[in-house]
Amino acid sequence: MKSLHKISRQLAIVLTGISLFSCSKSQQEFYPENNVVDIDVKAYIAQDSLQFRLGGNILKPYPEAASPYFGGSVSTRWVANGATSFAVLNSKGELLLERKIDGAAVSNLIKFYYDGATITDKLPDIPKPAAGNVGILLSFPERKYSKVAAKNIGVEVAAKRRGQPTIIKRYTFNEDATVFVDMTFPAGYQYITCSLVKADSPSERYTPDAASYIITLNSPKPDRGYLMMIKEIADQMDRFTGIEGLELTQYLN
């Protein structure tokens, strides 16, 4: 009797295993395995705030966030099952950028810069620097507070290393408010500073009201081009305080 009981139990286990296997196989037929893909977003929102949409879902900066809006520097990741779309909308719900994700790639990177009016997801053409040099495309499109014409602004550029001679070059902004810096940067030098000065008087700040008028590019690499966006800034009382620079190459493709 004990032997018969034991055999019955073993048979039940085998039958159960067959049943589970059949169910699993059936599930695989009706519910094929999804392709899980990563969507990495690296962006900088200089002004205003934006909404992100993945498929039909509005995303939040974090699960407990009260608001679905993103601002400032953004570096985050979401996961999707297969093909989907990623969209960026402004505070009015207007579509600014959309990317179709076909699910073929496991990792999908989306980069952009938003200045409060225009979204940019690709680098402009940056001139190639001379061999061994660092290239910096400086752009200063708006002088909201100073109102200084671009052609009246000079740039004093210095490559620095403690205990070594400082390498200095001077430029003047073009009428389109851009200037390309082609700078020697020897091995061991740590950073490059760009000081905005008067074009006809490099010893003076481009406007006397600017408390900050210097921007820094840390550890640039030779034979590479960078895009530095410059903007005028103010305190909480909207009083002009100077400039700040944002190196956009890191945020754009």
Query: What sort of overall outline do the alpha carbons produce when their principal axes are compared?
Result: globular
**Which percent range describes the beta-strand content?**
over 45%
Helical/strand content category: mainly beta
Largest sheet: 7 strands, mixed
Give the rounded overall mean pLDDT: 86
Low-confidence stretches: 1-32
Cα Rg:
28 Å
DSSP helical segment count: 1
Helix proportion: 10-25%
Distance between the termini: 76 Å
Number of DSSP E strands: 16
Write down the secondary-structure element order.
Answer: HEEEEEEEEEEEEEEEE
Entry keywords:
disordered N terminus, five-stranded antiparallel sheet, 11% helix, 1 helix, seven-stranded mixed sheet, mainly beta, single chain, globular, 48% strand, 253 residues
Write the layout of secondary structure elements.
Layout: H1 2-30, E1 36-54, E2 57-58, E3 69-81, E4 84-89, E5 95-101, E6 107-114, E7 119-120, E8 133-139, E9 153-160, E10 167-172, E11 178-184, E12 191-198, E13 201-205, E14 214-218, E15 224-234, E16 240-247
Parallel strand pairs: 1-6, 8-15
Antiparallel strand pairs: 1-2, 1-3, 1-4, 4-5, 6-7, 8-11, 9-10, 9-12, 12-13, 12-14, 15-16
